[in-house]
Each structure stands twice: as C-alpha cells, then as structure tokens.
Amino acid sequence: MKEQKVTCIVCPLGCEVTVKTQDGKIVETTGQACKRGEKYAAVEVTDPRRTLTSTVRVRDGASPLVSVKSVKPIPKELLFASMKKINETRVKAPVKIGDIVVPNVAGSGVDIVATTDVA
Amino acid sequence: MKADVAVIGAGPAGLAAAIAAKENGAKRVVVLDREAYKGGILPQCIHNGFGLHIFGEELTGPEYAARYIDMADNAGVTFMMETMVLSIDEHKVITAVGKDVGITTIEAKAIVLAMGCRERSSGALMLPGDRPAGVMSAGTAQRFVNMEGYMPGKDVVILGSGDIGLIMARRMTLEGANVKMVLELMPYSGGLTRNIVQCLDDFDIPLKLSHTVVKMHGKQRLTGVTIAKVDENLNPIESTSEFVSCDTLLLSVGLIPENELAMGLNIQMDSVTGGAVVDSDMQTSMDGVFACGNALQVHDLVDFVTEEASRAGKAAAQYKKIAKLFVNTIAGSGVRYVVPQKLVRDGIDKTLFFRATKVTRGWYTIARCRGKIIASRKRVMCAPGEMENLVIKDADISGGVTVTIEETKT
Fold this sequence. Notes:
The complex is a heterodimer of chains A (119) and B (410). With 119 residues, chain A is an alpha+beta fold.
C-alpha cells in the first residue's frame, strides 16, 4: 500500500487530500471536502500533467527571446527533458504567435508554440 | 494636441480603459506609455493562468496582452510610446516627453490614470548586513530571465511568498538554478494555493512560514543570508538564526501603486490602498480624472484589472461635470479596505471590492447600511491574498455602507 498527499487546487480551500494506492490502483481517498477534490487528487496521483512555459532563443530578431508554451499539459516527469530540448532550440525571426517552435517535445506528443510575435 | 480621453499607461488597465472609451463614443483616445512596447508587465509574465475569468481559457501574459493590443488597434486608439508623462495640471493638460515628440502637451477632456504599480525594493526593507550584488526584486529577475535571456544566479533564496516570488521559484528551477527556499514573514502565504502547489511543491522547494532574512553577507557578490524564525509580533527570534549560502536573493515583498502623477495633482489618496480615492464611476476627487488597475489598488488577477479599467474608460468617455450625490463605504471588522470609497446615487447597482485582514474559513462577508444587512455571502475561505466582492442594490443604499467579515451572520 502506497500513501500520497496532494494539495487540492480546485478552489481556495486547498484541502490536504491523502490517496492510498495498491498496485497503481486507488483504494482510498481522504481529506477532501468535495467530489471535485477526489477527482483532482486521483489525476494527480495517476497522471499528473503541467502546462510548461519558457523562452526560446531567437536569431536576428527584434528581441533575443520568444516566449513559448506547451499547447496542452505534458506529463510532469517530462518537464526537465522538455526544458533541455527547448533550451537547445534556436529559431529565426520573424516568429508569429502560435507558430510551432518544438514539435512533439520530449516525445510527449505535445507541441511547443510561440506565445508572442517577434519581428 | 487635444484628446477626448487621455490614458496614462499602456498596460492591461490602460488598454482596457482606452478600448472602453472608444466603444462609448470618445472620438480621440490617446494612450501614453514610457516603454517601447505595449502590454505593461504582461510580456514578461510568460506563465499561463491569465484570462480564465474573461475568456474561459488559460492564456499566458503575452497572449492576454496581444488580444487587447489588437482590440485597441482595431478600435482606433492612438498610442504614444516611449513617451513619459511628467505632470498633469488642474486644467487636465498633460506635459510629456518622448523620443519622437520632444516635450509636448495634450489637452484632455478626461484622463484615466493607469500607471500600474512598482515592487517594494530592497532599500525599503532595510535588511542589515552587506550590500553586495545579487539582491533584486523578483520582477527584475523575471525580466532578466524572460525578456533579456540572462540568469541572475545559481543558488537562490526568495524572501516573500507573493505570486511573483513563487512563479520565479519555478522559472529559475526549470532553467537550472537551485532554489533553496522561500521565506515568508507572515504565518500564511500571500500567494495563490495553485502557485504554492505548482511552483514549490512540484519541485520540493520548502516554504518557511514565519521566517525572514536578518542579515545579508558578501563583499562583491552575495555569499549567503542569515535567516531566523519570527515570533507572533514578527520580531526575529535570535536563537533560531542560521546561515544559508546563496548567490542570489529575490524579493517578493509587496507591490506599491505608482501615483506620483496623482499626488502632483493633489488628488485625495487612500493611505491603505496606496491609490486614489474613487467613486463608483472610478472618478477621483478631481473632476474628469479617473483611476483604475494596480495604480488604484493592487489586484491578484488581471481579469479584474481589465473589468475595473473598462468601467473607468466608459465613465471617462461619458464624463460631464455634474453634481453627484455620494455615500461613503467603510471598511469594518475583518476588512482592510473597500474600493470604491464613494458610491454615486445614480440608480445603478454597485460592486464593492475589498480585502480580508486575516485567513478565515466558513465566515460571512457582509455589507450593512444603517445597521441592516443589504448583501452577504458565506465564503469557504477568505484570505488577504484574494480579493472579495459583494454586489449591492442602489435602492438599498440609504447612507454609508459598512463591509465586514464575521463568523456568524446576525
């Protein structure tokens, strides 16, 4: 039996939810004030994901960097592998908002796109 | 030059005010900003979470700014960038200096103050010890990392758990820095729970509540800080002090509305918010001068800045010098301040914005007029870091309105 603690972020209450798992399956969830907390904690324990935002170096641009984001949340364990790829990437100006800067970052199936224009 | 509405500041507040002024019939709307780019602080806030309230989706700061910049351009707003306003006089004549225009004056029928806020600086904290390099505000570090492409340091301690400090803890960690801890003087964090989870817990960065920096060390570059726990009166407990080595100290210790222009006009100020005193039309004590955004009161969500600024822009476009009948709002028990400070009796329902003095769970926010409850809400949680609001009916206003946060509704 494995026990994990999760702070729920669905509402400002911030419940401390305890999730017990056996062989990767949830057997008990305690500490949450509502059903939304139970659902949030289940996702956090089984498949936690985060939207990644960062910057990519721009060649010959009006700014040295372009801000970027993952179009969807990516698995939490791929955050640092994704950062490595993002920091190795160089793009040439001009860059438009929504342009794909890194496709399928770190094998996550999620693209990294520009969130601003750089002339 | 003449303008129907002149807006000082091209950040989220200024953009929304200018768009609303255009939509409400102002012909010539001019926005002045000392930066070369529009959007204020948003271009450096590359993280997501903006616009959930207005657009129902999580945008990054630059994306949120881009939407309003497009709307302003489409509405025909005139921008004067790299132009800094030096003063405003009592006839609403603005004196500004700019790269392209030199020194120029703008005669405005109405003015919207949307200058935003500044971070409280290291000087204001008067931390004992050395004055080495490597000590800066979290927002300065954010600009270095996100706009200029420099890392300000490797081993980082953050003082203050405001949202900018939390966001920078994650950002510096993702870029390879070792963020050792975040210290918070108060027994609770001023940041959103979501940011504590996703910026600190995700990376096992400890949040030390009731802790502060008592000394800085380092001749050229910062070599470390002495930290200590504080007692209930926020005084450091000497026996708990310990040395933490670091080369960078980031400060996220509060925001201060930027109001030199308002003070130059002798506008009535609110000593608690640091912004102007406004009525429910967002008009200051000077006829035809309006205020909104972080220059008026420091907000936690940009969506609320946009909404507030839209009201100010609309009122500026419709401005006529008329006698108004007012009642005052009063911050009662458990409430730090209420904005607007004055309510115009004009038949329109009002939204009161206010902040709690402490963290409470399951208490009520209550608005009273002559002792009678005219609006109330039960809140799962109130915290100083999250702005509260109550809607009251104009018909229920028969005198001053007092807002309180109480355990029971009686």
